[in-house]
Prior knowledge:
The protein is α+β, with helices and mostly antiparallel strands. It has one domain (2-95). The chain is 48% helix and 13% strand. The protein contains three helices and two strands; from the N terminus they run βαααβ. It has a two-stranded antiparallel sheet. The mean pLDDT is 87.
Amino acid sequence: MTTVFRFEGKFINLASEQEIIAGTIAAKEVFAKNQADPFACQSAKDKIERDELLTKEEALLFLVWDEAEDAAFRAITLGWLIRGDHEINMVVSMEADAAAPLAATG
């Protein structure tokens, strides 16, 4: 199985394939730096979105997710003239080892 990073949002169609790849690399660097599993981090984010209480470990994982998503957003939108209202969100999933369009795998 391969971890696939995908980006969603109202303005993601403005991003080029190279920008998507740059965002994926930026997010992976944050997860690696923090030795954090992207799925555990996404799970903590999902829990926050459901207004559930987090353990201390989950809170730290959420902070890693937030940092990774911010790094990805900044890498994707680098050079864009306006950033403020652009919504681009990161999603990770497990998929069979098949090529995914516009997704860097690893």
